[in-house]
Every structure is written in structure tokens, then in C-alpha cells.
Predict the 3D structure of the following.
Amino acid sequence: MSKIAIDIDNTICNTSEFFGPIAENYDRNILHKNNVINYDKVVPRSDDWTKEELSYFIENYFNKESINIPIKEDAVTYINKLKELGYEIVFITNRGIKEDDHTDLIVSEYLEKNNIPYDNIITKSNDKYKYLCGCDYFIDDAIHNCEDAVNNTNTKVIMMETNKTKDYNNDKIFKASNWEDIYDYIRRSWFKWQYI
Ligand SMILES: [Mg+2]
């Protein structure tokens, strides 16, 4: 069976957009500081928070609120359509890799809550390309994950565009601005194989 590996944060849901205001609120109203929030992080935070302040944020906000990250509505529609085409859907995320981060434990609940079909979930995966054996496609928003995959595997790589990657271009990586683009790209190759 053909297989698609899909990242979670900022690929199927708006993680950074959701946690930005939460980080600001924590910084201003709980820590009573006025730090700059670094929006380049998947989970926005201040680079000036102490280790303890960051741990408190991860435990009390990231772990508790991750279940409420808004899903991208078109991800629900098109991942279901990809499943209907017969693809096996595998989610691959580095959630849970840091000591305080327990959001790996709610991934299945989160996917079910949002009506996203899946066959397998791989968490705590820092080097995602190592898990792509047998995958036809890999979809992720992070440049390093996409480049690692394109340089080390035969899997076709699709980058979900974000503000950070607007100007990024790589001939070997298909860049998509939404899930309809991704579906069309995969479906085109699917038809090609069916009717060869
Ligand atoms: Mg991501």
C-alpha cells in the first residue's frame, strides 16, 4: 500500500499562531515581564525566559492547550480524500522529545477529535527522514526536515509553506500553500501510475 508521512505542527494545524498570544499573556500577566516573544519557534516563547519559566509554560500551557490547537480545515477535507484514494496515513512528529513536553500523548485523541484518519503515529522523531522507508510522500513545514528527506531518501517531499519559508525554493521540493495544492499534486501522480 502507498504511504504518506505527515508532520503535525504548522502542517495540519496552526500551532505557532495559537501559542503566540498565549506566550505573550503568560509573559505579561503571569511573569509580569515585557520580553520579546520569538515567533520563529514552533511554540513561540521568549528567549529570555529562564529554564524554570519555560518549563512552567510547557507544563501549564503547551501540554494543557495542545488539544485545542485549531486544525486547518482543508487538512481535514484533503487527508480524508487521500485516505479514500487508498493511501496509508502516518503522522510523524518530534513532540515528546523534550523532557517536559507530553503532547505526544494526546496526538491520537487530537486527530480523532478533528476527524483526521490515520494508520500510525510516530512521536519523538528528531531525524524524521530515518522513518520514511516505504513512504511515497513526506509533508512538513520545516526546511531542515524537508532537506534531510530530499537528501537522504527517495520519498517525494512536499513543503507546507509558512511565513518563514515564503522565499525558500528548492527544485527537488514541491512547495504547497494549502492542502488543496498537496492533494492535487499527489492525485496527479496517482492517476499517472493508475493509467500507465
Ligand atoms: Mg512542523
